[in-house]
Amino acid sequence: MSTGFERHQAGEPDHYPDLARGFVPFPADRAELYRHAGYWTGRPLDSLLRDGAANWPQRTAIIDPARSYTFAELDAAADRIAAGLAHLGVVPGDRMLLQLPNTCQFAVALFGLLRAGVVPVMCLPGHRLAEMSHFVDVSGAVGLVIPGRAGGFDYRAMAEQLLAAHPSLEHVIVDGPGDIGPFVPWSSLTGFSGPPLPQRAPVDPSLPALLLVSGGTTGLPKLIARTHNDYVYTAMASAQAYEMTGDDTYLVVLPAGHNFPLACPGLLGAMTVGAKTVFTTDPSPEAAFALIDQHHVTVTGLVNALAKVWSQACEWEPVLPTSLRAVQVGGSRMSAEDARFILDNLTTGLSQIFGMAEGMLNFTRIGDPVEVVVHTQGRPMSPHDEMRVVDEAGAQVPPGEEGELLVRGPYTLNGYYRAEEANARSFTPDGFYRSGDRVRIFADGPKAGYVEVTGRIKDVIHRGGETVSATDLEDHLHTHPKITFAAAVPLPDEFLSEKICAAVVFSGTPITLTELNAYLDQRGVSSHARPDVLVALPSLPKTAVGKVDKPKLIKDLLA
Ligand code: OOB
After folding, report:
1. Does residue 166 carry a pLDDT above 60?
2. Contact 70, 61 (CB under 8 A)
3. 321, HSE (Cβ side, Cα atoms, 13 Å)
4. Are residues 438 and 473 in the same domain?
5. 52: buried, middle or exposed (CB in 10 Å: 19+, 13-18, 0-12)?
6. What is the mean pLDDT of residues 149-161?
7. Taking the CB of residue 50, how many other CB atoms lie within 10 A of it?
8. CB 524 within 8 A of CB 130
9. Mean pLDDT, the chain, whole residue set
10. Would the pLDDT of 154 be above 50?
11. Residues 490 and 553 in one domain
């Protein structure tokens, strides 16, 4: 078999046509508008690094407890990896699953893949066989980049199972330590010394740069293709909104593959201004505060639960995170009390952020009045974000009233990747994404134009910053031989924001929560997507048409 390098040299066609299959592009008229307005610059996503290396070669770009890279070093590492990937036979337009923990190697791998023209599927370390399998199926990925063992989990064993089930997977690349087994060692790419990647035609910036994973509404998570144009814009505009400069340092606390720490502004936003990014796998206040102090971290993003823990810890931790000037908190609804608690204890630089992998971002801005920071989830990032609030019939509600948020704009998707059926439901005929979130947009006063998220229409559970699909979990529950009916519902939780309650009708003797979770673990359900509480019931409340009445169920459970 010829190597990928030879195939490149022989002018083997790239796989962009295959990548484009099932991708819903922006319509031509709006694309023209966004280009004209200057949001879309036509830059490929990996140019953030190329330009960073040209502008600030000797500045530190990324750092973790083990090592650091300057912009020039990271750029050179990306080139080596791209060449190594080509040598393996990977072709531009191919997709690969990227599932690495929060270390420098996450960024090295991301840019190596991008430089090779590969479209990474941004998996999180908590994803397990069921989700990973689904991502391979939908994306048609040819390989994966995983750690060997991390956080007490053996990713190689999962890779074996994935390989057995998916003949399309050709390359499993493992970032040690320990036994790599039959797989490709990451070090063979980082240390690749073969010929550099041959020059190719520049990538079309209206094509997908990467695939993000949705929070999941019904069934398994969906894939969201973010284009070079829209993702570069997201990184640049959010860095600008937070007034980031080369003097800033961003700390990645949340899983790095999630849109929030990746580009809002996160790693990619920091890179647009020559700022440094610090990675940590330990979100505990003790460890994080020490890192913040050590690296003089100025900006970070947290989910509510973590922001609360950090705020509480300020009471006893000897080292306080005083260098922080902006702490973004988002992912699920935060109460005004919690917002005040954070302001009073952790930082006066609190910024609420209401975002989604699908695109649209809202945040409160630096210098906004306290009332706005405490009582709203921010206002849109772009002047061209279009928001519509509609009632159940799809009619626009009067200004200031509640309804479902529909969005359209320069960085919001126009369709999920390879998901025609879901797209028919999730988009209006004129291209608005139905967010499933219940919101109100304030019509006047100091909060005018700001959004309050009041709940959601989507049937999902927001557990400690993760969005868990109730339907998906129910599907798994229903496979258990002793379970007749099951419903997964959120219950309020002080630390997780919401915990997962499985309300189950058993046939025969009920099993315990531990037994149930061991079963779900075996089925490949992620730890964060398994029930925290199990309640055995004689029957589940039903609506008139015979569906499970979840609001009633929750009320009963809390009574
Ligand atoms: C972020 O992204 P996803 O894709 O994991 O989840 C999106 C969903 C939203 O549709 C909404 O239901 C909920 O999470 N959400 C919030 C919220 N922020 C997100 N609900 C209430 N208040 C908020 N502040 O979660 C995400 C992506 C980028 C930046 C920040 C968060």
Report:
1. yes
2. yes
3. 33
4. no
5. buried
6. 95
7. 17
8. yes
9. 93
10. yes
11. yes
Strand partners of residue 437: 456
Pocket test for ligand 1, best of 332, 350, 460 (most atoms within 8 A of CB): 332
> What is the span of the domain harbouring residue 327?
282-414+434-456
387 plus 505 within the same structural domain: no
pLDDT value at 485 more than 90: no
**Ligand 1 centroid from CA 259, angstroms:** 10
Q: 478-507: buried (b, 16+ CB within 10 Å) or exposed (e) per residue?
A: eebeebebbbbbbbebeebbbbbbbbbebe
For ligand 1, the distance from its centroid to the CA atom of residue 437, given in whole angstroms, is 9
Among 82-86, 160-164, 237-241, 331-335, name the one with the lowest average pLDDT: 331-335
330 C-alpha to ligand 1 centroid (Å)? 6
Q: Are residues 408 and 534 in the same domain?
A: no
Provide the pLDDT for residue 545. Answer: 37
Residue 184 pLDDT greater than 70, yes or no = yes
Closest ligand 1 atom to Cα of 358: 4
Ligand 1 pocket list (CB less than 6 A): 214-215, 259-260, 264, 330-333, 352-357, 377, 435, 437, 453, 456, 467
Q: What's residue 49's pLDDT?
A: 98
Residue 179 has pLDDT above 90, yes or no: no
CATH number assigned to the domain comprising residue 9: 3.40.50.980
The answer to whether position 507 is within a domain reads: yes
- With both helix axes pointing from N to C terminus, report the angle between 304-313 and 336-345 in degrees, rounded to the nearest 10: 40
The pLDDT assigned to 337 comes to 84
CA of 118 to the centre of ligand 1 (A): 27
User: Which of 217, 356, 413, 437 most suits a substitution to test ligand 1, by most atoms within 8 Å of the C-beta?
Assistant: 356
In a domain? residue 86: yes
**pLDDT of res. 199:** 81
SS3 78: helix
CB 101 within 8 A of CB 281: yes
Per mean pLDDT, which range of 23-27, 95-99, 495-499, 543-547 is the poorest? 543-547
Residue 543 has pLDDT above 70, yes or no: no
Please tell me whether residues 67 and 152 are part of one structural domain. yes
331 C-alpha to ligand 1 centroid (Å): 4
Please check whether residues 118 and 131 belong to one and the same domain. yes
Q: Cα(170) to centroid of ligand 1, in Å?
A: 34
Query: Bridge partners of 217?
Result: none
> What CATH number should be reported for the domain holding residue 552?
3.30.300.30
408: its two tokens:
């359209």
Atom nearest to 460 CA in ligand 1: 12
**Does the pLDDT value for residue 87 go beyond 90?**
yes
Q: Report yes or no on 50 lying in a domain.
A: yes
Same domain, 79 and 124: yes
Find the range with the poorest average confidence among 151-160, 392-401, 545-554: 545-554
From the CA of 301, give the closest atom in ligand 1: 30
Domain boundary among 206, 227, 248: 227
Query: For the domain that residue 397 is a member of, what is the CATH number?
Result: 3.40.50.12780
Q: Could you give the number of structural domains in the chain?
A: 3
Same domain, 439 and 485: no
What is the share, in percent, of the chain residues with pLDDT greater than 90? 82
Tell me how far the alpha carbon of residue 165 lies from the centroid of ligand 1, in angstroms: 32
How far is ligand 1, taken at its centre, from the CA of residue 466, in Å? 9
Within a domain: 41: no
Atom of ligand 1 nearest to the CA of 334: 22
